[in-house]
Amino acid sequence: MSQGCFVIVTGIMQDAGLPHVGCRCHRCAAAFANPALAQYAASIAIVDERTTPAKVWLVDVTPDVRYQFNLLAPWLGRDAARPDRLRPPDGLFLTHAHAGHVGGLNQLGPEGMFLQNVPIYGTPAMLDLLWQEKLLRPLLINCQPAPLAPWQPLTLAPELTLTPLLVPHRDEAQTGTLAFLIRGRERSLLYLPDIDRWSDWPGAREWVGQADVALVDASFFSLEELGGRPPVAHPLVTETLSFFAGLENRLVLTHLNHTNPLLDEGSQAQERVAAAKVRIAYTGEKWEL
Ligand SMILES: [Zn+2]
Ligand SMILES: [Zn+2]
Ligand SMILES: [Zn+2]
Description:
The protein is an alpha/beta fold. It is built from nine helices and 14 strands.
């Protein structure tokens, strides 16, 4: 046991995961045939093992949340009142109002995990949207809306803070999109799964430069992958590598679309990223903070 705080990766795919619904590409066909090849939608958890039981916060509630809570079982432990169940998390953080980041909330009501008194953190507009949503309100009625103030560090525990950063990203519901800078005693990690373009965010290099590890949007590798269509609301990995020249050692890639050749072992895309000393996140990967 580390006796400290860490971030653990609980999923690395774009919102719809792998296999992708209705897709017959070679990666999805292989994952339909062999569920061991499936990958969950992007999320992370923050764990503080300095207390017993540990504290566990999940960042984004994806359609794969049932499996993601299962990955966190060693730290959640059993619920005191219902020992056949996992203890609920200490809080849920939501980056933004897109399907893969909130789509698992429907598992948390009385038909599912039945969370009670768990804080759900997001922008005020995001929480208003969820609590006004007729389908979701009965599921969330026992949880606590916890509005976040962008740019203000929130103390989760002694020497453990989370700072919400507003980033530009496709925003149909006008709720804003957050990235999170998570800072422990020794190290910090930036979690930024979705952004439209790095050049639209004046703070991009400064915030990535501040973090020891920056887990960033790697939805699409290159224009080739998109068959000439422009990328929708995400930077290309090839652009990310050049935009962050000099800071590559911090970059770790997540939120991969099923079309991304970085998913293929030994691909040219993987070689190109490795030559830049940039890594791809994997589920279960941990960083001590
Ligand atoms: Zn997303
Ligand atoms: Zn596919
Ligand atoms: Zn998004």
